[in-house]
């Protein structure tokens, strides 16, 4: 009933709307009018809040998105849409950078809208860049000022699209039934891409040149969309910023997701004894914001799920087996990805101090972020990341933790993803973003944090009122050119240059993006990634098996000595492994 009222109200609005056609486009979905903007001395048309799916309210809550029917009359696309319901206090702080990522406008369950920026100086056949936002699949919105596509459209003559998708409980709750199949936030993105494919030509875009670019959970979404048979044909290339799909976070097995849903339903007064249909009906009667807030209070986060339908395989297996769309990819991370999270999660880290943590805090941090390590593996990680030449420096363990976190969660998943694409024969490019913005108020030790590249990708330094340096303006222009070139051709270089070499299996070349001249580096943390893949995982398997066998025997000093002997023999193999990788990189 609620849905019918909303649709009737929307139809009445469209039928009676009288809008001056400042920017006027007729699409297969219907006629839309938007804003005409003067940007960088050229004209950009902005169409804000175009619906791409039926409102996911009432009986459609928790279901996969359904297509929006074409409308009659004129749709007024001149104001930003609401963000999807979420925990607006997710980041827990009021620092400038966190505020930049937090929606400050209306929030609604009726949120499946997208925005289009059309460069008028490139009338047809323009490459299309579709943005997928980050936020750990818990928060995020296409309406953030940070994601304004006008500069990218004006500077590079590309059509820019940003899309909303459901997050948190309303986006990823899973029951294994049609009523709540899980992955709604991913299928929302697929629905938006389908709309783009069918309608973007009306805005001058080429539907065969659609590149999805995204950061953090948005980058991870690209990998999932690339894996799924339901979505892989809806786009052509991907730009993955700090969000490789094989990162060790942010997904559940079907059984884990189901059990999480049962516990959550009980916590909000929807007991499971009457069956799954009754649970879903009960949850649909609850206030949407209350459901999200309760998931936060109960620390019950919902993520993408390997459901056997939209996602049929674990990402690591999919990459190994080649079960993903063969497409060009540009992938990378920032120099100091983890510092943004460390100040939130771990005792001893703070943006108000030098964060000179102790060895004990270092070890607790390892155990907190990587709970699957046994005592032997923890010892190995401490040994591997201790800077023995500078072991008396007070910031030793702070810097070591940043390095190991970056390797484990970002750089090594990037390398794994890049290798998989090279094996498929796809054009593959890698970067490290290494520029700390001059107007950032956080301490120097935090470096180039997670998300720091986005303002440069979207051209915010070109806004003189924001106080960026001339060098940062030039860097932003260069990055926008790289991203647009890649969307157009699958190669980030200009036609007359080859400063950014492709990633390959031998030396793993990548480019450093900062205000200095472009430069290539080789082997992005190859030895460190070998440590995690080829040493730590076998170490855990071998020592777990050894400890299991000894748990069935009387405790003797000889048995303990055997355990230590195995550990130190494995440490020796670590030296050999590192030597092999160093030799390989310099051979």
UniProtKB/TrEMBL annotation:
Answer yes or no on keyword Calcium: no
Catalytic residue list: 216, 337, 450
**Origin superkingdom:** Eukaryota
What InterPro entries does its record include?
AB_hydrolase_fold (IPR029058), AChE-related_enzymes (IPR050654), CarbesteraseB (IPR002018), Carboxylesterase_B_AS (IPR019826), Carboxylesterase_B_CS (IPR019819), Cholinesterase (IPR000997)
| Gene3D superfamilies the UniProt entry points to | alpha/beta hydrolase (3.40.50.1820)
Q: Which GO terms describe its cellular component?
A: extracellular space; plasma membrane
Q: Name one Pfam family in it.
A: COesterase
The EC code for this enzyme is: 3.1.1.-
Q: Which GO terms describe its biological process?
A: acetylcholine catabolic process; choline metabolic process
Q: Name one GO molecular function term.
A: acetylcholinesterase activity
Signal sequence range: 1-21
Q: Which UniProt keywords apply?
A: Disulfide bond, Hydrolase, Serine esterase, Signal
Cite the Carboxylesterase type B domain residue spans from the record. 24-532
Similarity field: Belongs to the type-B carboxylesterase/lipase family.
Name of this chain's protein: Carboxylic ester hydrolase
Q: Please tell me the species this chain comes from.
A: Branchiostoma lanceolatum
Q: Which gene encodes it?
A: BCHE
């Amino acid at each position: 009933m609620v849905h019918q009222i909303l649709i009737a109200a929307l139809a009445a609005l469209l039928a009676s709307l009288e809008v001056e056609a400042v920017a006027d486009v007729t699409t297969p979905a219907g006629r839309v009018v938007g804003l005409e903007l003067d940007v960088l001395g050229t004209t950009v048309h902005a169409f804000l809040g175009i619906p791409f799916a039926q409102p996911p309210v009432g009986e459609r809550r928790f279901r996969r998105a359904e297509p929006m029917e074409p409308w009659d009359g004129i749709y007024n696309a001149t104001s930003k849409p609401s963000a999807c319901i979420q925990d607006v206090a997710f980041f827990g702080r009021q620092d400038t950078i966190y505020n930049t990522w937090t929606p400050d406008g209306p929030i609604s369950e009726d949120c499946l809208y997208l925005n289009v920026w059309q460069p008028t100086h490139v009338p047809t056949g323009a490459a299309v860049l579709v943005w997928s936002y980050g936020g750990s699949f818990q928060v995020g919105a296409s309406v953030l000022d940070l994601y304004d596509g006008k500069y990218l459209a004006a500077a590079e003559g590309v059509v820019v699209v940003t899309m909303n998708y459901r997050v948190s409980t309303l986006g990823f709750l899973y029951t294994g039934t049609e009523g709540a199949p899980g992955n709604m936030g991913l299928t929302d993105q697929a629905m938006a891409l389908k709309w783009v494919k069918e309608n973007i030509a009306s805005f001058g875009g080429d539907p065969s040149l659609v590149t999805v670019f995204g950061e953090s959970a948005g980058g991870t979404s690209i990998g999932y969309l690339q894996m799924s048979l339901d979505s892989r044909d809806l786009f052509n290339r991907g730009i993955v910023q700090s969000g490789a799909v094989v990162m060790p976070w942010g997904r559940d097995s079907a059984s884990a997701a189901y059990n999480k849903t049962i516990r959550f339903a009980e916590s909000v007064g929807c007991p499971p004894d009457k069956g799954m249909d009754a649970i879903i009906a009960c949850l649909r009667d609850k206030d949407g914001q209350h459901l999200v807030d309760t998931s936060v209070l109960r620390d019950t986060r919902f993520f993408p799920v390997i459901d056997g339908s939209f996602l049929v395989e674990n990402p690591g297996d999919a990459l190994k087996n080649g079960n993903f769309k063969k497409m060009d990819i540009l992938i990378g991370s920032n120099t100091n990805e983890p510092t943004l999270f460390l100040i939130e999660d771990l005792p001893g880290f703070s943006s108000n101090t030098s964060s000179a943590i102790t060895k004990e805090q270092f070890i607790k941090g390892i155990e907190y972020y990587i709970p699957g390590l046994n005592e032997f593996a923890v010892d190995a990680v401490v040994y591997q990341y201790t800077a023995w030449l500078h072991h008396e420096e007070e910031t030793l363990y702070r810097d070591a933790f940043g390095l190991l976190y970056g390797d484990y969660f970002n750089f090594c998943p990037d390398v794994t993803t890049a290798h998989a694409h090279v094996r498929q024969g796809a054009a593959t490019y890698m970067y490290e973003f290494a520029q700390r913005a001059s107007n950032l108020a956080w301490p120097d030790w935090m470096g180039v944090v997670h998300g720091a590249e986005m303002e440069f990708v979207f051209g915010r330094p070109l806004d003189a009122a924001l106080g960026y340096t001339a060098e940062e303006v030039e860097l932003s222009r260069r990055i926008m050119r790289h991203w647009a070139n890649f969307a157009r051709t699958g190669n980030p270089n200009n036609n007359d240059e080859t400063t950014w070499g492709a990633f390959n299996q031998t030396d793993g070349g990548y480019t450093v993006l900062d205000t200095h001249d472009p430069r290539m580096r080789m082997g992005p943390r190859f030895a460190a990634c070998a440590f995690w893949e080829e040493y730590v995982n076998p170490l855990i398997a071998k020592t777990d098996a050894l400890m299991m066998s000894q748990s069935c025997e009387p405790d003797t000093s000889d048995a303990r000595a055997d355990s230590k002997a195995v550990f130190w023999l494995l440490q020796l193999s670590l030296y050999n492994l590192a030597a092999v990788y160093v030799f390989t990189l310099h051979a």
